[in-house]
């Protein structure tokens, strides 16, 4: 086993940049929402939220390939086969680039249908089309940029991931202010700000790999569909976690329109932004420990694998409690960033619902880290059971049941109930994974003896 101090250093080295990167992603949409609400109005804020499922789906597709690729690349590097690791890295980058081109063409030709499918109403459809129509142009930079950002950590440069996303975040904030507030470009200006920021982050990461400073670099390769299938199978759980945001937001939007009314979409927009920020924090911890666990799992250093897992779970627990307390105590100033308190009814309604929803933050971290750990030790079925449960199956069933039992208030409590249900079987899955690792350790000791 690695020295405990060294493991803690590696944990911080990988998790801090990963959490920072995930925060930046969630802040992209949040900053857009803040500037749009102040510079355009509440209908425009609702439109940005309506567009969120599309953006989350794009990000989820990047995670699908990135998570699988970084697991395989890290394990391959751990086994000492740099040549194969480079081939897998290049294969993944080319694949996501091709996928991006297909998505752009399909989305642009179906923009009207896409806006209606996402839930655009008569008062928001023009805003949705303006925002989405611009974002779509930058899809390639969204997908490839995040892929390179994740793999740069496997290359041994997690600090560059932090620098890259910070450059992008600062650019997004500055351009949002210029385009939306100063130049009055509206939701389209917010979309351009986000897209340009992604171009810069992509350029930063791409230049690193072109310079061939680390172990990973672009090389000649053959399309190996067997490896692609493995990349996808490993990435599905984390993909499910992220794409669940898109599906849940879409279903919640429809439920709110049907049960409460269009005005409540503005409240849900605020709740959704805070939820994404907390969830991506947990995903950052999860994705931060994945390359380290995969590396030591490839080296068959089981004690180090379990030590990193415990660090991840402890970090998620602390983050969950802190997030809950911040939201409960500072709910009013948080909501004030998006909604003026001059609209007292909407403001109070949103504050109350945000506090109710925040109980889910106490549980989701455990579930997300459990799923991520299963991915890191190549247990995609276990990971999928947790991710698919919390991301789609359980939350959708719980939402329907809570609405039937409690009406509108049921929408705001359903996520907490869902996360608790998933945690019950996630604990059993994690225990099974730990036992498998311990048995693997015993088998190795018998072989060595």
Automatic annotation (TrEMBL):
<dbReference type="InterPro" id="IPR048279">
    <property type="entry name" value="MdtK-like"/>
</dbReference>
<dbReference type="GO" id="GO:0005886">
    <property type="term" value="C:plasma membrane"/>
</dbReference>
<feature type="transmembrane region" description="Helical">
    <location>
        <begin position="131"/>
        <end position="148"/>
    </location>
</feature>
<feature type="transmembrane region" description="Helical">
    <location>
        <begin position="14"/>
        <end position="35"/>
    </location>
</feature>
<protein>
    <recommendedName>
        <fullName>Multidrug export protein MepA</fullName>
    </recommendedName>
</protein>
<feature type="transmembrane region" description="Helical">
    <location>
        <begin position="318"/>
        <end position="339"/>
    </location>
</feature>
<keyword id="KW-0813">Transport</keyword>
<dbReference type="InterPro" id="IPR051327">
    <property type="entry name" value="MATE_MepA_subfamily"/>
</dbReference>
<keyword id="KW-1003">Cell membrane</keyword>
<dbReference type="GO" id="GO:0015297">
    <property type="term" value="F:antiporter activity"/>
</dbReference>
<dbReference type="InterPro" id="IPR045070">
    <property type="entry name" value="MATE_MepA-like"/>
</dbReference>
<feature type="transmembrane region" description="Helical">
    <location>
        <begin position="354"/>
        <end position="375"/>
    </location>
</feature>
<dbReference type="InterPro" id="IPR002528">
    <property type="entry name" value="MATE_fam"/>
</dbReference>
<dbReference type="Pfam" id="PF01554">
    <property type="entry name" value="MatE"/>
</dbReference>
<keyword id="KW-0812">Transmembrane</keyword>
<feature type="transmembrane region" description="Helical">
    <location>
        <begin position="89"/>
        <end position="111"/>
    </location>
</feature>
<keyword id="KW-1133">Transmembrane helix</keyword>
<comment type="similarity">
    <text>Belongs to the multi antimicrobial extrusion (MATE) (TC 2.A.66.1) family. MepA subfamily.</text>
</comment>
<dbReference type="GO" id="GO:0046677">
    <property type="term" value="P:response to antibiotic"/>
</dbReference>
<keyword id="KW-0046">Antibiotic resistance</keyword>
<feature type="transmembrane region" description="Helical">
    <location>
        <begin position="160"/>
        <end position="183"/>
    </location>
</feature>
<feature type="transmembrane region" description="Helical">
    <location>
        <begin position="55"/>
        <end position="77"/>
    </location>
</feature>
<keyword id="KW-0472">Membrane</keyword>
<feature type="transmembrane region" description="Helical">
    <location>
        <begin position="273"/>
        <end position="297"/>
    </location>
</feature>
<feature type="transmembrane region" description="Helical">
    <location>
        <begin position="409"/>
        <end position="426"/>
    </location>
</feature>
<feature type="transmembrane region" description="Helical">
    <location>
        <begin position="382"/>
        <end position="403"/>
    </location>
</feature>
<feature type="transmembrane region" description="Helical">
    <location>
        <begin position="189"/>
        <end position="210"/>
    </location>
</feature>
<feature type="transmembrane region" description="Helical">
    <location>
        <begin position="231"/>
        <end position="253"/>
    </location>
</feature>
<dbReference type="GO" id="GO:0042910">
    <property type="term" value="F:xenobiotic transmembrane transporter activity"/>
</dbReference>
């Amino acid at each position: 086993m690695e020295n405990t101090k060294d493991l803690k250093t590696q944990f911080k080295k990988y998790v801090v940049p990963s959490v920072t990167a995930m925060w930046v992603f969630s802040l992209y949409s949040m900053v857009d929402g803040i500037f749009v609400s102040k510079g355009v109005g509440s209908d425009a804020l609702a439109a940005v939220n309506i567009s969120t499922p599309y953006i989350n789906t794009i990000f989820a597709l990047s995670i699908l390939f990135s998570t699988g690729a970084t697991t395989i690349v890290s394990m391959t590097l751990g086994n000492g086969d740099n040549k194969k690791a480079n081939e897998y890295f290049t294969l993944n980058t080319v694949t996501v680039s091709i996928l991006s081109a297909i998505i752009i063409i399909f989305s642009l030709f179906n923009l009207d249908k896409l806006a209606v499918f996402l839930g655009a109403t008569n008062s928001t459809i023009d805003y949705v089309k303006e925002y989405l129509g611009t974002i779509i142009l930058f899809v390639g930079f969204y997908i490839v940029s995040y892929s390179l950002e994740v793999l740069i950590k496997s290359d041994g440069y997690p600090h560059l991931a932090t620098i890259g996303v910070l450059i992008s975040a600062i650019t997004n904030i500055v351009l949002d202010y210029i385009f939306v507030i100063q130049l009055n470009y509206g939701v389209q200006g917010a979309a351009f700000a986000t897209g340009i920021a992604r171009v810069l982050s992509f350029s930063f990461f791409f230049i690193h790999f072109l310079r061939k400073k680390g172990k990973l670099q672009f090389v000649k390769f053959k399309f190996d569909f067997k490896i692609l299938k493995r990349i996808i199978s490993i990435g599905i759980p984390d993909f499910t976690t992220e794409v669940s945001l898109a599906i849940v937001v879409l279903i919640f939007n429809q439920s709110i329109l049907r049960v409460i009314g269009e005005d409540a979409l503005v409240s849900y927009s605020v709740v959704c932004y805070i939820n994404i920020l907390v969830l991506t924090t947990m995903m950052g911890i999860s994705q931060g420990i994945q390359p380290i666990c995969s590396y030591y799992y490839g080296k068959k250093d089981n004690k180090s694998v379990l030590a990193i897992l415990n660090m991840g779970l402890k970090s998620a627990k602390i983050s969950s409690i802190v997030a809950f307390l911040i939201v409960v105590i500072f709910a009013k100033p948080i909501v004030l960033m998006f909604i003026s308190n001059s609209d007292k009814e909407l403001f109070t309604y949103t504050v109350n619902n945000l506090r109710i929803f925040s109980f889910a933050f106490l549980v989701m971290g455990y579930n997300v880290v459990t799923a991520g750990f299963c991915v890191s030790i190549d247990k995609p079925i276990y990971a999928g059971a947790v991710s698919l449960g919390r991301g789609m199956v359980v939350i959708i069933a719980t939402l329907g049941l809570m609405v039937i039992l409690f009406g509108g208030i049921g929408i705001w409590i359903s996520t907490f109930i869902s996360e608790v249900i998933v945690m019950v079987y996630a604990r059993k899955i994690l225990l099974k994974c730990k036992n498998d690792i311990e048995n693997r350790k015993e088998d190795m000791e018998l072989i060595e003896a």
